[in-house]
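Sample pair:
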Amino acid sequence: MRISDRVRKTINVVLCLAAVVAIGWSGREIWLVWNNHRQIDAACGGLVPAGRVLALSEAGGTITHRRLDDDSFDPDTGIPHDCEIFSTEAGERAGTDTGIRWFFTGAMGVLPADQPRIADAPMEGPVGMLGRTTYPPQPLGGDIAGRVTDSSVTVQLPCEGAKAEDTSVRALWARAELMPRRGTQVSGHDRDILAQTAVETANNLADRLGCADRLPDAPDDVPALTAGPVPAARAEGTCAWYGKTGLADRSPYPDEVVESRTDARVWDESCGLVLDSGRANAVYMDEAAEHDWLNSPDFPGEWFVSLHTYAGPVAENLRLTSTDEGETPEPAVPGKAGRSATDPIWWASSVCDGRPQVHTMTVGSLGYAKLVVSQMEDVFRAYVDDVTTRRHCTDAVFPGHSTFRADWGKA
């Protein structure tokens, strides 16, 4: 069939227009990808891998970043304290008025840090007040010192001998974090990318600071977090020791645990012991008549025992109480042991693989702490014995027997 010249010309025009449109569309896409990379590099000092961030589930559309103050960057190295990334896709999913939403944060720094780590307070238990289901942090694994939460992955890397702002560096850390819907954890796809992002950020920071070591590749298929609390009899990780004591079957001891897998590389390993509503209310009914200062529990997990082990540089800058409102911070000094003067918080110490470790115990709330203080020495010793045995630690120092009495906070 012969095509007329007129039809042929029309087809050619249409094809040319289609090609122009395709070139324009592809050109716009190329510019968008380039600009999105540029936005992330500008926000994060070129340290956070932009390609990884753009592979996250809410990274579609146009990327922007929050401009940080000048003092948010180290003037000598250009290293940002953190960087905040926004996208239009995240905004569309959330239905924001502005059409954009903050969906990713990259953060990094060096150890020892300027700001001390603060041990749990009596009102900061292992179970959230807004919902009983909790996703306790888990170790990353893969021969990496890493910590996975429901929305982030943080890693540490040794960096002995480096300098930052004329300060000696012992280690560095990097965190990649999504801003998830409340009460949920990120998907497996995003969790893997966050792990890769944190590891690559740490290695890029190591390059910038001149560190000798590098982290290996992040593990594939980072496991989802396991929800808690669970009955103490089912404990098999950092709280397995408690399930073996048999204390969970006895009042007024906690009957549930919030735990993680064990990993000696983790700089903050925790075990939470909590009373479920039934146990807590039963204890209150049994004891309230004799102790008029004992308040009834208002929410699940309000009565708890929180146990932590801090390692390395983190352990060297740990405080037992907050520094808010002019409060004098109480240091938990490696090589020593004791109790807070103002709160039911105790600390012990040890040395594991040449690194200082500080072990803490916080009992909350204050009424429950006062009720059980005389029974907590054996609990704390059993916890520290478990950690130091698992980590092959030496030189354990415990608070004295006389510290387990309810006179904290008195003038």
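The chain has eight helices and 17 strands.
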